[in-house]
């Protein structure tokens, strides 16, 4: 048995499950029953039903005598059958049904196990449960399991992914061939138009309703949490694509910072050892305080514990919104909430909410202020990681910069995000769809493509170069204030400096070249670069822009194909720095 778990509480639950399995198996061999304590038994069966651990499930039910209809997750009100159905664990579903599980038992939002199987696109699990059920009742949102099955298809179709055969059997054994096939299947001339079609306007319609419902619910939850633990009294601020206007496809992803003010803090900045710098950054952030809640990883870990307690028995107010498995998990720097939205324009959305608690402190002298830093920003944020370290958090600063993009800059950003989305599957997509983005060598592996981190920071670097080129063409800044005025203005800078318009596709190539070592090289000689963060790069490790050289090759070949007179590899080179 192999379990890949990150969070400490998940690892603890796995160790408990293994210990219980060993004890129950010995009791089983002796023909005896053994009553496991209820919290441990529930936690073990919860893990087993999610991971499809059949022997553990059988031992807990038959030897440990835990009732199969027991509610295991107080946040969603789900049983083992609900959990197994939501994770598509057909074998575990069969075992639970044979043990007498109730297919009509509802969770806190009226979902039967078949509702959850349909909601997460598990077709075989849905059909397995359908054979056991004579009724198909509606959930709190008013939809039946059969309707949810159809709504999942609608949701899936919102994400424009591949539906035809792209790879030959030989291609599947070469990750470079898989990436190349995926990029070549993208129609570059249409990418600009498609990006405009796929981007969301979060300021109106049902997208606004989703955003407002999510923020209102998080506010209610955090009021409960902060009442129990005043440490988490702070301001909720939206970050990420839902704020900066670059969210594609559907309003199903929200990044929220809980900004907290603390007095009497002493933030220390020191240099790391030379061998640590590439992995963790040149500078180390540490906190000197006598406050227990800021020691180690308590600031981050306690949020999960408090939210777990407050969400037990909590029911979301908006009937279109519900908490669904896994409900609440911990991340490296905060927590993640999993919800489902069932509306009109969006009959089903699987919504992820990342909530990160951050401390707001004055901008540290040792941390550089890049060219694009807004002039009026005097503070920065620090987040607490699971390993007990402190990190710079610039999500809100990045959002301010990206909010102020010109239309043509926004177009480049959207084209890049759309292109990368075509090279990876969403976590909730069916397994056969995920296979488009896998290569095979003894088992399936994900292809290496640039992460959102790499693209975002390359784009910010490109944006700085673009602003600096505008500075050169205008003859330099007469005053320091001029720089702040021009950075992030809505007018088209090319019109302001009298420069002719260029193709956004070429600018997109420039961004991807910045993820390569020596971006001025010919495309045949490009190599992957380990990219640093634009903001706070001294405090964070570098990350490789895997796949960027292949993407550049494919895009430049397409540019030459569609625009032979004006689009060459040479013209698509990055802007040169003159500073």
TrEMBL record:
Protein keywords: ANK repeat, Repeat
Pfam families registered for this protein in UniProt: Ank_2
Highest taxon, organism lineage: Eukaryota
Residue ranges of ANK repeats: 76-108
InterPro entries: Ank_Repeat/CDKN_Inhibitor (IPR050776), Ankyrin_rpt (IPR002110), Ankyrin_rpt-contain_sf (IPR036770)
PANTHER family reported in the protein's UniProt record: ANK_REP_REGION DOMAIN-CONTAINING PROTEIN (PTHR24201), ANKYRIN REPEAT DOMAIN-CONTAINING PROTEIN 66 (PTHR24201:SF15)
Protein name per UniProt: Ankyrin repeat and SAM domain-containing protein 3
Species the sequence originates in: Portunus trituberculatus
Gene, per the UniProt record: Anks3_0
